[in-house]
Write a structure and sequence with these properties.
8 strands; eight-stranded mixed β-sheet; alpha/beta; Rossmann fold; globular
């Protein structure tokens, strides 16, 4: 009998799951400080199962290979890319066009330039508008991202908003904290310290969750996204429909000693539905995949929610590993 994939509640460790049915999958792309071509490659591979901008993934395979493998075994209702400010756009995907071109049906491009000064309110509003208009194809929605912002920057952002669980944030590791004042609004502070994807998704989930279930795919960064949304809702006098929001991450991210996801989530004004999936590459013949079990690969490309989706749909650990190995061998 093949071993099933186990998903549990972050707070209780009791068996838990995503909603039943098919999920739409949205992957946000945004250039971050020091970012590489990885976000572009993730988008190309997720949509096309092929890399056009590079011949191969460097070092260990990106988590997007896991997400794509699960899509091959039990397809998502839809796969879409959100361009939230990319210098280099992925080829052969719906966001691979300039903002001046007429966008085809299904293209998600929000005219956000990676070189512009950050306007937190404008990006949050664009996210809220997108969440209000989004037409669900399946039963619920997964929001993922391929932008890895340094932990210290996220911690500084949360510190600026008044949260208390920031271990590493200080003026010493983020100079923009010196520019803040008590008179500044949350949006003004986030214009100095915010990150585009988290701001966009914060607006998106507040609106979209009023109509259907939304899953944030990720650990530390997506926990921060919930905290940003919880703070900004006070500025726009809006309630959080928390029973329609789930955070889905991996055991690898939950055990990361550099971020305490449980502690961050405990800062919310509500008790969130948060789950993690216990998945291991122990039986894989590809040694680079063992880096995941050692906590040496940062979660991205929605891998936490993808694994929970696999668990909900009764995919076995071995079937997922075999599909991942096949994709790597044929890449």
């Amino acid at each position: 009998m093949m071993k099933s994939i186990k998903t549990s509640n972050i707070f209780t460790n009791m068996p838990d799951s995503l909603p039943s049915g098919k999920a739409d999958f949205l992957l946000a792309l945004s250039d971050a400080k020091g970012s590489s071509i990885s976000a572009c490659l993730d988008a190309e591979y997720l949509i096309n199962e092929k890399l056009y901008s590079a011949e191969h993934f460097i070092q260990e395979p990106s988590p997007v290979v896991v997400t794509r493998a699960i899509h091959n075994l039990h397809p998502f209702a839809s796969l879409e890319i959100l361009n939230l400010g990319m210098e280099r756009l992925p080829q052969h995907s719906t966001c691979a066009l300039s903002v001046s071109e007429e966008m085809p049906l299904g293209c998600q491009n929000f005219n956000i330039s990676p070189s512009e000064k950050l306007d937190a309110r404008a990006i949050f509003t664009k996210g809220a508008d997108a969440g209000r208009r989004y037409e669900l194809k399946g039963n619920y929605l997964i929001l993922a991202q391929s932008t890895n912002t340094p932990n210290t920057e996220i911690e500084a952002m949360l510190l600026a908003l008044g949260y208390a669980c920031n271990k590493g944030a200080s003026k010493a590791n983020h100079s923009n904290l010196d520019s803040l004042s008590e008179e500044m609004s949350s949006f003004e502070k986030l214009s100095l310290l915010g990150e585009r994807t988290l701001l966009f998704y914060a607006g998106f989930i507040l609106e979209a969750s009023r109509r259907f279930h939304v899953v944030l795919a990720g650990g530390f960064e997506m926990a921060a996204c919930l905290l940003v949304a919880d703070k900004l809702r006070e500025d726009i006098f809006m309630r959080v429909k928390s029973d329609n929001i789930t955070l889905a991450t991996t055991r690898w991210a939950l055990e990361d000693k550099n971020s305490d996801i449980r502690a961050y989530l405990s800062e919310l004004s509500y008790i969130p539905h948060a789950i993690f999936t216990d998945f291991s590459f122990k039986s894989s013949e590809i040694t680079t995949l063992h880096q995941y079990d050692k906590g040496k690969v940062q979660e991205s490309a929605g891998v936490g929610a993808a694994l929970a989706y696999a668990s909900q749909n009764q995919l076995s650990t071995q079937s997922v590993i075999e599909q991942i190995e096949y994709l790597i061998y044929t890449m």
